[in-house]
Amino acid sequence: MVELGATQSRPSIFKSSSTLRESFVHSVREWRNHEKASRDDVATDSSILSIFPGVQHGSIQPAQLLFYRWWLDQQLGVLPAAFLTLLPGTAQTLDFGACSPLTEIFLSIAGYIKTERVPVIDNIIEQLRTVGLLRVVSNSEGRSEDIQQLCRSLVFAILGWQTMLYQASFGTCPPQQLAIVDDLDGYRGQAFMELRQEQDCAKRQLKTFLMGFGVLLAPKNMCISDFPEECQAFESVTVVGPEEINFFLLQSIAHVKIKWIDVLAPHLEYDKSTNTLFLFRYPSFCTASLPCRHDEEAISRGVIHRSVSTCCIMNESDIAKSCATQGDDTSGASEGEITDFLREVLLSYRLLFGQSKDTRNLFRTMDPFEDVASEGRDDLLMRLCGRKSVDTSAFGKERSAYHLPQHFPILRFKIAVLKAQLSVSKAKGWRELWRDRRDSTNWYTFWAVLIIGGVGILLSFLQVLVGITQIVITVRPRESSQ
Question: Residue 331: pLDDT above 80?
Fold first, then answer.
């Protein structure tokens, strides 16, 4: 029985060894698949981020743009499932995988925009169909118009992702229209005067089409308001310094609050009705989009330079006519002005936060990414706004006084409006008076007079008390002697 027991135990031992071997092989396969997936993710990230000049030429490391990859994934989450019908083959998901059709479409749009002199959304669609990245629907299927509308919506959304000037909105308008997200909570400023326009406008030049939403990029040194007080502020405010306009003063004196947004066009817009200042929270996008010179003649520029040059317009009536007019408007911001805009956005963080000690301390109490996962945070924002010393050589020089027509020609109007709002705001209460150092001479004079005058009044009061005491001491002995 012993021999039988030993004989019976052998298969159990061999089975256990076999199981261990299979488990080991399975673990190795899982590890290899994980490594391959990791390499695919890295390859995908590198290809997606290659649309930025800074990444192409090594001045920006992909690790600095991890937030952008996370942000793109969030945008994918709101895409309608109907977009799957646009993709060739049997794609089941909309993702940025290494070999996914959406990745190819994303990169092809960026490549087309950078090489096409006059980009048009409908022309981009035709190009994508030519290379087999979008389905070709025949008229016999009876859905050609529906498919064309979906194609326009997809290209429009991707252009918004690549420029971050706006975010496309889905399900908020009829399928015959294109819409953008209301990031400003109902406020209609210069960037977003309208939230919708007809899809037929997509047949026109891209910059003219985008003018239908608003002034996504203001011209240099131009007042884009019809309000007399804002025009007067634009003309009168020409020099500002970090000691007279910073967010510490805006909050403590004018009671302004910040809404951090994911779109670049409305950066620094101010809603007077709600006392809200809108600030773009991804400055690394600006640094990555700055042009890079890769030889003595050629300069690499980003998608934002070639696709969303905004026309120079004067008022809202021009906006309304942008789709109605027959000819394409050829005026618009130059690529150099778009570069200036990106640099001014970066420098504006230093003006409002980084160059003032009180504001740096205030910023450290804020959390611009409170509604964002850790991988969606931009560390550059924290450095620009929370540190005293930062390398600004890539986008400008810090100054104690900025001449707006020279140093902020594109953001000039927005900064002038903020400065004017601060000027008409009066400090209320002793705490606000102490914080209000917009005019250092008046501040020192006021507190010197207050302190010296207060001390003088106190000494006079003490002198009166001493006199009264002396009288009382003199009178009491006389009364007691009587």
Answer: no
Contact 252, 432 (CB under 8 A): yes
Could you read off the pLDDT of 29-41 as tens digits, one per residue?
553 444 444 444 4
CA distance 95 to 115: 25
- Nearest-angstrom CA–CA distance, 265 and 163: 10
Instruction: Find out whether 135 and 154 touch, Cβ atoms under 8 Å.
Output: no
Beta carbons within 10 angstroms of residue 426's beta carbon: 10
**Where on the phi/psi map is residue 274: left (φ > 0), alpha (ψ -120 to 50), or beta?**
alpha
**Digit-coded pLDDT (tens) for 386-400:** 999 999 988 999 999
Cα–Cα distance, 168 to 194 (Å, whole number) = 13
Distance CA 143, CA 141 (A): 6
Q: Which tokens go with 330?
A: 């050829």
Instruction: Decide if pLDDT at 142 tops 70.
Output: no
Comparing CA positions, the residue from 428, 425, 426 lying closest to residue 417 is: 425
The C-alpha angle with vertex 383 and arms to 381 and 389, in degrees rounded to 5, equals 140
Q: Do 390 and 383 meet the contact criterion of CB atoms below 8 Å apart?
A: yes
Q: What is the pTM of this model?
A: 0.79
- What is the separation of C-alpha 66 from the centre of its chain, rounded to a whole number of angstroms? 15
Closest CA to 405 of 215, 220, 188: 220
- Lowest mean pLDDT of 29-38, 269-278, 286-295, name the range: 29-38
Going by their DSSP bridges, the two strands 168-169 and 177-180 should be labelled as: antiparallel
pLDDT value, residue 11: 44
DSSP H or E segment with residue 474: helix 440-481
Average pLDDT, the chain: 81
Q: Contact, 417 vs 344, CB < 8 A?
A: no
Place of tokens 């399975």: 26
The three-point CA angle 277-279-282 to 5° equals 170
Instruction: Give the torsion sign (CA, 95, 97, 100, 102).
Output: positive
Within 10 Å of residue 223's Cβ, how many Cβ atoms? 19
Reply yes or no on whether the pLDDT at 28 is more than 70.
no
SS3 category, 293: strand
- What is the model's pLDDT at position 123? 93
Question: Which among 339, 355, 346 is positioned nearest to 240, based on CA atoms?
Answer: 355
- 273 touches 175 (CB < 8 A): no
CA distances from 176 to 152, 274, 310 (A): 10, 33, 23
Give me the long-range contacts of 140-144 (CB less than 8 A, separation at least 24): none
Selection from 108, 52, 100 nearest residue 76 by Cα = 100
Contacts of 384 (CB under 8 A, 6+ apart): 283, 346, 349, 350, 353, 354, 390
Query: Measuring CA to CA, which residue among 213, 111, 114 is closest to residue 165?
Result: 213
